[in-house]
Amino acid sequence: RRSESRFRQAFQDAATGVAIASTDGRFLECNQAYCEMLGYSAEELTQLDFHQLTHPDDKEQNQQEISDILLGILDSRILEKRYIHKTGETVWARLSITLQRDDSGNPLHLIAITENITNTKLAEAQRSEAERSLMQLLRNLPGVAYRSLSDEQWTMLYVSEAFERLTGYNAEDVIGNQRIEFASLIHPDDREKMYVETIKAIEQNQPFQVEYRIIHKDSGIRWFWEQGSGVRDKDGNIVAIEGYMTDITLQKEADANIRESEQRFQLLSKATNDAIWDWDLLTNELWWSDSFATLFGIDTQSKKPSIKGWEKRIHPDERNRVLNNLKRAIETQQQSWSENYKFQRQDGDYADVIDRGYVIYNNANEAIRMVGGITDITDRLEIEEKLRQSQRLEAVGQLTGGVAHDFNNLLTVIVGNAEIITESLASDSKLRGLSEMIQEAADRGAELIRSLLAFSRKQALDPKHIDANQLLNNFQGLLSRSIGEAIQLELALEPDLWLAQVDPGQLENALLNLAINARDAMPSGGRLLIETLNVSLSEDYGSQHDVTPGDYVIIGVSDTGVGIAPENLDKVFEPFYTTKSKDKGTGLGLAMVYGFARQSYGHINVYSEVGQGTTIRLYLPRSPEEVATAENASVLHIQPQIGNESILVVEDDELVRNYVISQLEFMGYKVISASNGSEAMEIIQSDADIDLLFTDVVMPGGMSGRELSDKAQRIRPQLKVLFTSGYTENSIVHHGRLDPGVMLLSKPYSRDELTTKIRKSLQNES
């Protein structure tokens, strides 16, 4: 009895739930722990059976387990099942069920020792859910989670399912290096660098990030980005690496495309020579390309550009117009905008620019952005202005050439006959003054035509290899008389001056014009300096000033006169432009010098400051180095010459022809005349004695003077030829220079000039 009492006490006090049930499942007795587990009292449980408390999903399995025990298949059974708590909640339990039999072996009752494992099951469920969620997350990640050893083979201990998609290899292929080492997938050029960077970060107990290429099983080279960290044991030793890797090939390609687009944009910006801008109309932020520094000297890096800053750089005279037109373009929803204006450079000067913009609108048709570019057109406008000036000058030249021939024919007759009349009158005759006035007016007309031809680069030049120092020394006396005693003339000559290839007579005319201009700029006297020096012009200088690079001899003429105002500097070489009074000049002096310099393949520059004076420099082409001797013969020494030779005069203008015949016969020459080339050829083919052919260059009838000369010398090889013309065109002059061996007497001319040149031609002097 005492033993039974102790058993019952132990039964009730047991921490584990214990229940005794009949073979049909009715509860016979339950201890306190069992009651607390299910929420019922012992009395309530005796009214129930375990089938009623078993979770519906477990009843069938539970009944099968009990049947096996009752049938003797099993003596006992350990199982897990779910009960329904009195509150309706599910209670998980682990049961150890044993069948008790009587002495005859018949089943008496079932004893179930029950452990509440609800918390354990909940923890397992949570862990399973966490594992499921983790696996689902890993499956959904674009990259691969991994765990590996920290060896050079990158021996993988675990890789997520995405590994096959990213590399083309199964996880089993790489785990434990079963079929392939992960390190062998890394591009050989990246392998060592990637390993060194990773291990360095891990040893410093820092996470790492690396980019490298892998060799995909099927798709060639792919770019990977990887982030990870080292795993250490309790002693701090590195036992593994855990991390994440993903394919960034598309991002790399996109980055490369962006870089290529940026490079293309920069190259396009440079190629178009435009300064590109981008204006956010919503934030009013402005971006300028680096070309603003190249074109305008504006540093866009240290100081952020702004709309206000741009507005301030627009010339004040144009600012309102530009801003109003820009505002109107945006408000009226125009697609594009364009303006020409002056834009201030960093150094304060203004550039002529054309600014073009494109307006971008949103879906609500609101202007949100503008992009565009500024083109510096300063040089273009200057070139266009020079072209317009050149066209104006060319028009003057064409006009000059058109009238020069006929006008010079008239002047030849006027000059010659005025000369004859003057010589035939007594010195005290009242008519002599009138004839001298006629002669002076004709001379001035001839000089005007010569100046126009020189300016328009249509005069016939006969260049020689000259020593400019020698020419200036010989010419110094005439220059001194021309400028007067109030002006001091100084020469500063380069000792080792190169020879220059230029027409000496025309050079003297040019220097005389420059000296007279300088004299007029110094009405109260002053100093005139003429200097010479050698110079070599570079490619850059040549491209900027439209002159061929190379060696030149400079003759500079400097005065201490009133100077030239900056706004007039660009006009000084234009024909008929002058700041002098009407009685002081025609405005052709500098134009003639300019035309002479350009026709001589040279260059001319003018430097001047108001109140300080002016320097004009002639750049004359250097003679070839093999030319060692100067040919400084320049102005023809005029002296009447008589003779008795036979001269064939060919001139289409009757007045000129009669004048020439009378003058030559007066000087003793025998003269045969013809009015055109055909008549002249008949005479040449006859037996007539002819010592000299004196022919006009430009004649009607289809045969020029040059063609007549060529035909005549084929018939009479020893025949001397002298050409005359008021305008040579291209028959005996090419590129502005007389053909070799050609002698020319330019119209108009006096009797003395005529007979002197005739004599020189007959003597075959050159």
Describe this structure in words.
By secondary structure, the protein is of the alpha+beta class. It has 6 domains: 2-123, Beta-Lactamase (2-Layer Sandwich), CATH 3.30.450.20; 141-253, 2-Layer Sandwich (Beta-Lactamase); 273-376, Beta-Lactamase (2-Layer Sandwich), CATH 3.30.450.20; 382-454, Signal transduction histidine kinase, dimerisation/phosphotransfer (DHp) domain (Helix Hairpins), CATH 1.10.287.130; 460-621, 2-Layer Sandwich (Heat Shock Protein 90); 646-762, Rossmann fold. It contains 23 helices and 29 strands. A 5-stranded antiparallel β-sheet has the order 2-1-5-4-3. It has a 5-stranded antiparallel β-sheet with strand order 7-6-10-9-8, with helices on both faces. The protein has a 5-stranded antiparallel β-sheet with strand order 12-11-15-14-13, with helices on both faces. Helix 14 (378-424) packs across helix 20 (654-666) and helix 16 (468-483) runs parallel beside helix 17 (504-521).
CATH class of the largest domain, named Alpha Beta
Cα gyration radius (Å): 57 Å
Q: What's the mean pLDDT score?
A: 84
Please state the overall shape, judged from the principal axes of the Cα atoms. rod-shaped
**Shape-level CATH architecture of the largest domain:** 2-Layer Sandwich
Describe the strand arrangement of the main beta sheet, using strand numbers: 2-1-5-4-3
Number of domains: 6
Number of β-strand runs? 29
CATH topology-level name of the largest domain: Heat Shock Protein 90
